[in-house]
Design goal:
It is built from four helices and four strands, in the order E-H-E-E-H-H-E-H. It has a four-stranded antiparallel sheet with strand order 1-3-2-4. Strand 2 and strand 3 form a beta hairpin. The radius of gyration is 18 Å and the shape is globular. The two termini are 31 Å apart.
């Protein structure tokens, strides 16, 4: 699987006093959003990434190009839903594990979204698409 490694700098916010790994993971995700989203600007392809904890509160991040996980170019949320439905089901009980020993400790997804005032009706052409079941 092709992936594009990136280096990010971050400082850990205190998310959990009991789990320092949670703090490191949260800080890495915030840094990725800030550096890939806010600094590079939006109107960019969706990004799927994985995190792996390294010694010394370091995190290895791999960004996966959208062409790999969304080859059909559909709505990114639909692409991930389709991808996840092809995977085996998650067991009902997952035993706690040490995130520092995992090859992947977190998966993230960043995309640009839009919101609209739901009290304002959609234009007729868009409403017809919505009624056919298309995501609009």
């Amino acid at each position: 699987m092709s992936r594009k490694p990136r280096d990010f700098t971050f400082s850990a916010p205190l998310v959990s006093a009991d789990d320092p790994h949670a703090n490191t993971i949260a800080a890495a995700i915030v840094a990725i959003e800030a550096q890939c989203g806010e600094q590079e600007g939006w109107n960019r392809p969706s990004r799927l990434f994985t995190l792996r904890l390294l010694p010394g509160d370091r995190v290895e991040t791999a960004l996966y190009p959208e062409a790999i996980w969304n080859p059909g170019g559909v709505n990114p949320a639909d692409a991930l839903s389709g991808l996840s439905s092809s995977l085996p089901p998650v067991p009902d009980l997952l035993l706690p594990a040490d995130a520092a020993q995992a090859p992947v400790c977190a998966v993230g997804f960043m995309f640009e979204g839009w919101m609209r005032d739901t009290t304002v009706p959609l234009p007729p052409a868009v409403e017809r698409l919505r009624q056919t079941g298309m995501r609009v």
